[in-house]
Amino acid sequence: MTKQQITAQAKSAFPWLIMILMSSVTFVGILSELMPSGVLPLVMADLNISEVQTGNLVGYYAIASAIFAIPLISMTMQYNRKYLLLILLGGFAISNIIAGLVHDYTAIIALRVIGGICAGVMWPMIAAYGMRLVDEKDHGKAIAVIMAGTTLGISIGMPIMTSIGNDYGWRIEFIGLGAFIFVIALVSFFALPSAPGEKLTKGSSPLALLKIPAVLLILLLTLLGVVAHYGVYVYITSLVDEIQLAGGVESALLFFGIGSLISVLLAIKFTDKYLRLLTILMFALLIISMVIFLMYGGTKGIGHFAFFLWGLSFGPLVTLLQAGVSRQVETAKDVATSVQSSVFNLSIMIASSVAGLLLGIYSPMSLVYFAIALSIPGMFIAFLSKKTLS
């Protein structure tokens, strides 16, 4: 049997253990980004800083991710994917551990920016890395498994890390996550296969990709989907208070998390075959859940069901959009997903800003109307994109 035949045979069997290991990377990646939001009062009291300054620990991280993703992915295209990922994991680990040890706010912001830069490279790179290790027919499944770590991080990881922070202090939380990331890096060193980089050409540059109509279409769907979801999600506490949901925000997040986990499992199974249908359903379920909030949000049980439906819609968001953009290019998938990832992060910032303005003028239900207004065109664009999402 030739070397090519052995490689083809290895690819034909889906490498579940490797993909789950990669999923653990996205799990700690999302925790590294969002962890401060669960312990804001503790950080404020310890560093003697304002609420806005504490929020910047998440904000500057996201800005760094958005700004540096495209140029750094382009600069690191030729490097071996495995060793680049190990360097990024080292950056995540060190920035979190040192942030847990120092007491200077400016130094902690600088460390958060370093973490954000690592995230800006990791998010698009790891999806493209995973796709190289499987047959083309399994690209969607690979992305779904790898990105499942983000959903698990939000629904399971964040409550656990917040609990650790509240019980033992936010510094122990940061240092503990950094140590856990080092463990993942060590396992990755021995378990992940090597994958050479690619040469960046004029045809695969970010500017060249932005000239492809299908890529622009996916970026538009990214903008609509992310702003619609996160415009409400960022202020989920305000929505829960407005509809007076029984059980409060913990109950809302529980049902939201269950829906997200179920949809991730469905995405793993069906993304490769039904990408367009799942994208349409993602927008449709968001519309249905928001309409239920408007009409029956305060009714016991029905409001919880709406959060479950919203979770079903939210869970595969990253997977569907990254699978969509990766299908539009044959090579340099890292660059394509970096462009999509940057638009994703910028869309979160837009969502937070616009929703904050709406909340300052109107009631929290204005955010629900905002989500519906963006989701309707998103659903119709996905419905009409038969060629792009096929």
UniProtKB/TrEMBL annotation:
Q: Would you tell me the Gene Ontology cellular component terms? A: plasma membrane
User: Cross-referenced PANTHER family, in alphabetical order?
Assistant: PURINE EFFLUX PUMP PBUE, SUGAR EFFLUX TRANSPORTER
| The protein's name in its UniProt record | MFS transporter
Q: Where in the cell is it found?
A: Cell membrane
Which UniProt keywords are listed? Cell membrane, Membrane, Transmembrane, Transmembrane helix
Q: How does it sit in the membrane?
A: Multi-pass membrane protein
| Signal sequence coordinates | none
Task: Please list the GO terms describing molecular function.
Answer: transmembrane transporter activity
